[in-house]
Amino acid sequence: MSSFISKAALEARRARFKPGCRVELVSMNDPYSSLKPGERGNVVCIDDIGTAHIKWDSGSTLGAAYGEDHIKLASEPMSDAVREQILAIRASGETNMFDAQTVRRLALERGFCDLADYIEADVKAYAHFILTGEAL
Questions:
Q1: Whose CA is closest to 119, among 85, 92, 91, 95?
Q2: Which among 7, 85, 95, 117 is least buried, having the fewest CB atoms inside 10 angstroms?
Q3: What is the pTM (predicted TM-score) of this model?
Q4: Which CATH number is associated with domain 7-73?
């Protein structure tokens, strides 16, 4: 069942899934699609009803419908910049590093966009780094 998207939700979806960003399919409610969870692609655009039009690495161009299909930002390997930004926030002593949302907020306040995007894309990889000191 399709859902209507509010103007605020549409703006948030467009801000999160900008053209060119990498996404990963979590689930798709289309019995005729050959796409499987875990497949990746690049966002082309978000249309006025919230559908994310994606050029999948497999060659498909099937969109992910708002309210029906679920995509997330695809995690990328941790860069040196992200590692340095994590260490800078840790050194400040301002928060418990396991509080990923507060770390993300602090990252945004400091202009550490790479770290903020990394946490949003893959909080599990961030937590793994905090626990072990090793990047996934």
A1: 85
A2: 7
A3: 0.60
A4: 2.30.30.40
